[in-house]
Amino acid sequence: MKNKFTFTKSERSGNFVFLYALFFVSGTAGLIFQVVWMYRLGLVFGNASYATAATLSAFFLGLALGGRFFGKASARFKRPLGMYGLMELGIALTALLLVPGIDFYERYYSDIVSFLGDTKSVLLGMKFLFGISLLFFPSFLMGGTFPVLAQHIGKNRNDLSRRGTILYAVNTLGAALGAFIAAFYLLSEYGVRVTYGFAVVLAIFVGVLALVLDCWHKPPYPIINEASKYSVNSKKSTDFAFQLNKNQFILVAFFSGALALSAETLWTKMFAQVLQNSVYSFAAILVVFLLALGLGGILSHILVRLGAPSKTLLVLLLSTAAVLIGLSPTVFDSATNGLEYLAINASWFTYIWSVFKLSLMVIMPPTIILGAVFPFLLKAAPKADMPSGSIVGKLVLYNSLGGFVGPVIAGFVLLDIAGLWNSIKIIALLYGILAILIAFPSYRKKKITFLLWPAVVILGIIILKNPPVVKLETGEKVLDYWQSSDGVVSIVQLPENIEMRLDNFYVLGDSKSFLVEQMQAHVPLMIHPAPKKILFLGMGTGITAGAALNHDVEKVVAVELVSNVIPAAKHYFSPWANGLFKDDRSYIIADDARNFLLGSNEQFDVIVGDLFTPWHAGTGSLYTLEHFEQAKKRLSPGGIFAQWLPLYQLTSDNFNTIAATFAAVYQQVTLWRADFSTTHASIVLVGQEAGVRLDENTLRQNIVHVIGEQANPENNHMAGLFYLGNLEAIRNRFSGVELNTDDRRSVEFKAPILSQQANSGRATYITGKELDNLLSLLRSNLPAEKDPYLSNLPKEEIRFVKVGSLYHRYIELINARKDKEAKIVLKRIQLLVPDFLKKETESIDETK
Q1: CB-based contact 215:401 (threshold 8 Å)
Q2: pTM of the shown model
Q3: Pairing relation of β-strands 533-537 and 506-510?
Q4: Quick one: which of 206, 308, 801, 831 is 20 to 30 A from 693 by CA?
């Protein structure tokens, strides 16, 4: 007959299986919470790397303090499983603080900036404190869940090490699932609120089931007297090869968190050199990283059961981690054929699988080893009469403090000082040094040869050759590059051209396109009656913002997210930037565009949104309803907001979403062009107050700032050449189109898929025939002579709208080498404007 404290083996194992399943689901919910926190706080803190670091730091600080507090308190809990259930319910409840917290932040942020000033360090500190206020309570409780469950499952050291490693593994595997379903399904299909609500429901589900499980099952072991309940084997080990001392335990716990997350930060920057860099690409890397950590937990469990000396295994793990991390750049370079863009013409599913496959090849092997180190410390921890929860609490404390410090140092110190490849080397070297620090005090001279393995590893890492930083094609030369947490900014010399690139494949501007880049400023400024204060959201080369200085302006502000773009532009593009970097009227600010608008109380006559890559992670927020509304608040009466769109990077679905969202904020929307390209067309949505009409006197007054002084400027403004039409002409295209909002950033989630489909020929960008169809609809549905926006212009001026469309057709035919058709179109143009393209007519006649 069994007593009231006795359970059969099957009863205990069934109890733990349910517990492991709950902690798996808890990991899923926890990672969904974290994804949404980063996703949502990125909008209000800004997508700049410093703001992201503030959010992560606040999260890890909560984990660290929660682990320590509940680790110490867990020994006093008579029913730890029940307490765990209450903690999960607490996570669900306190997570809801995010909603009113963000509302408060958005409402008073501009007042806070006015009070504190715009010093970056001060604002960063404020964001960190605010992040703590939002995330502290749920992250504090999250940090305590593992120690409390450890107290429940680990009544002695053997139980703790065996079951604790499994507990860690299933929680981390659950986190991998959470990252996958959040990024690849929930956020894209249901938006932020529903996704966050789902995570809250999961936490409640786990909490309730834990409480039910606690009621149905008595504690698996009896509570025994205070003097002996935490004692480990009465025979204390004297073999230094088995257990770490206290200082070594702290050292490995701290650095296993700091270095693992530093490696993940640097690997993400490494992958950014060859990827589409969408939310899906980065999610795939995160999923593989978490999956590998979970598998590392399983490896740790296997090592625990082997019973080999703990220090010996730990030294081998740390040394192996050093080798694999040190080799990861070389493996990556080889796998990508020298940093070639990954699967550029593949279908969407093939592309995503390529990202996963590359991550599995490069990241998974070292991360499995990294993932084994943390849980293995449950076995290697110093032998002491200490409750299991307290041991795990200390482990979570030091590990999370490492997670708090490591990525910040890697992202904002190492990358700036050492660059990407050397930073990865440094992480690898630190793992090797850590192995030596663990091995050295443990072996006497006769075993000193054991130190040769980590020493050889360190030497090999040092002499390993780094891959190139910038991918170059034939005839290209790197003039300069900068590396930071924002990415790799490079200046590349091409034949008769200089390009500025971000992460190898994102061209931020070039000298050859300076006329087009200038027109991106001239067009919106040309139609405003008195543009005095101008704001550019995105600077790039500075050519566009510099063109504004040709106008009679008082102040030009350019906001640039990637801080290294500013010195790069100043040094290499000043000859084309029209004195932007010297003029007293210009102000260049390194900040996130949305964050700047949120924190500013200044009013502008014209605000210009740059050509943002639609599928790039984070830029979808610059096409949302809330962003357009915030920009509208910063406009002076009669002001203009101009959002440029790269049609060559947009499909019709993307364009319809952005245009419909824009039209929901601005009552009058017109479309203009910057150039007549048929393959790389850029157009602008110009938002104004209802009832505004294009004024002829305004055009005549401003055109001299665009084309210079003319002998007879009254007859030469020809602004209609750049006018495409009124959005009213195609408003029926937007019926039923879902708007792009902060809650549902459809552009950010759909653009990567549609873009990859277009690259593979399964969808179409708005170029060629697609562009012709769009322009034809604008002309036919609302001809220029019936367009109310043009109603104040005389007929002889409206004719230039038709000339512009004919000239676009002429360029298209010339590029297609259809000279006969081109000549016919040219004659039609010259019937409207006899002197237009006169030299081209003479050239064609000469060739005949």
Answers
A1: no
A2: 0.91
A3: unpaired
A4: 831
From the list 465, 96, 42, the residue with the least C-alpha distance to 282 is 42
CA distances from 497 to 71, 291, 341, 575, 612 (A): 61, 44, 22, 13, 22
Token pair in block for residue 80: 């730890």
The bridge status of strand 668-673 relative to strand 723-726 is: antiparallel
Q: What is the fold of 506-779?
A: Rossmann fold (3.40.50)
Residues 316-359 pLDDT 10s? 999 999 999 999 999 999 999 999 999 999 999 999 999 999 99
By the 8 A CB rule, do 720 and 799 touch? yes
At the topology level of CATH, where does 15-220 sit? Answer: Growth Hormone; Chain: A; (1.20.1250)
User: What residue spans define the domains of the chain?
Assistant: 15-220, 239-463, 506-779
The sign one gets for the Cα dihedral 663, 666, 669, 675 is negative
Whether 15-220 shares its CATH topology with 239-463 is answered yes
pLDDT, tens digit (0-9, with 9 covering 90-100), for 459-514: 888 888 999 999 998 999 999 999 998 899 999 999 989 999 999 999 999 999 99
CA distances (Å), 356 to each of 52, 342, 519, in order?
24, 11, 41
Q: CA 297 to CA 161: how far, in whole Å?
A: 11
Task: Count CB neighbours of 436 within 10 A.
Answer: 17
> How far apart (Å, rounded) are the C-alpha atoms in residues 381 and 232?
12
Tokens, residue 499:
């390009």
Distance of CA 409 to the CA centre of its chain: 18
- CA-to-CA distance for 784 and 779, rounded, in angstroms? 7
